[in-house]
Amino acid sequence: MVAILATMSCLVFLNVILRYGFNSSINITEEVSRYLFVWLTFLGAVLAFNANQHVRVTILTARLSPKKQRVLQLLTDTLMLFCCYLMVQGSFVQFQLNLDNIAPISGIPTGITYLAGLIAGAFIALLLIIRLGSTMRQIMQGETL
C-alpha cells in the first residue's frame, strides 16, 4: 500500500509541476492515479477490516450481556458475509463486462478497476469466515468478551 500511495503521490506531484510550471502535462498520470486510488481504497478496507479498525457504533451492543453480544456479532458477520458475496458477484460481472474496454490513454483494461472490488470482497469474506468460526467456538464454550 505504501508503494501505491508513493506512486500516486509522485505521479500527481509531477503532473502538477508540469501543468503549472511548464503549461504541459502527462495525460497518463490521471488515469493511472485513478486506478491506483481505487486499488488503494479496497486494499485499505481489507487491512482495516483485518485489524478490526472500521467505524463501529456500540451504543446498543455495550448494554447487552457478553453472550448476547457474541450472538449479535454472529448475526452481523453473517449479514456482512452476504454483502461480500454480493460485492464479489457484482465485481466479477463488471470485471467481465469491462475487460474488453480499454482506457483511451493508458491502454489499461477498465475491468482492472472492478478486479479490486472482487479481490477485496473475497479477502474480507475469508476473514469473516474465520471470525464466524471463532465466534461460534466462543459461544459454544461460553467465553466472554
Automatic annotation (TrEMBL):
<dbReference type="GO" id="GO:0005886">
    <property type="term" value="C:plasma membrane"/>
</dbReference>
<dbReference type="GO" id="GO:0022857">
    <property type="term" value="F:transmembrane transporter activity"/>
</dbReference>
<comment type="subunit">
    <text>The complex comprises the extracytoplasmic solute receptor protein and the two transmembrane proteins.</text>
</comment>
<feature type="transmembrane region" description="Helical">
    <location>
        <begin position="71"/>
        <end position="92"/>
    </location>
</feature>
<comment type="similarity">
    <text>Belongs to the TRAP transporter small permease family.</text>
</comment>
<keyword id="KW-1133">Transmembrane helix</keyword>
<feature type="transmembrane region" description="Helical">
    <location>
        <begin position="112"/>
        <end position="130"/>
    </location>
</feature>
<keyword id="KW-0812">Transmembrane</keyword>
<keyword id="KW-1003">Cell membrane</keyword>
<keyword id="KW-0813">Transport</keyword>
<dbReference type="GO" id="GO:0015740">
    <property type="term" value="P:C4-dicarboxylate transport"/>
</dbReference>
<keyword id="KW-0472">Membrane</keyword>
<feature type="transmembrane region" description="Helical">
    <location>
        <begin position="35"/>
        <end position="51"/>
    </location>
</feature>
<comment type="function">
    <text>Part of the tripartite ATP-independent periplasmic (TRAP) transport system.</text>
</comment>
<protein>
    <recommendedName>
        <fullName>TRAP transporter small permease protein</fullName>
    </recommendedName>
</protein>
<dbReference type="Pfam" id="PF04290">
    <property type="entry name" value="DctQ"/>
</dbReference>
<dbReference type="InterPro" id="IPR055348">
    <property type="entry name" value="DctQ"/>
</dbReference>
<keyword id="KW-0997">Cell inner membrane</keyword>
<dbReference type="InterPro" id="IPR007387">
    <property type="entry name" value="TRAP_DctQ"/>
</dbReference>
<feature type="domain" description="Tripartite ATP-independent periplasmic transporters DctQ component">
    <location>
        <begin position="8"/>
        <end position="135"/>
    </location>
</feature>
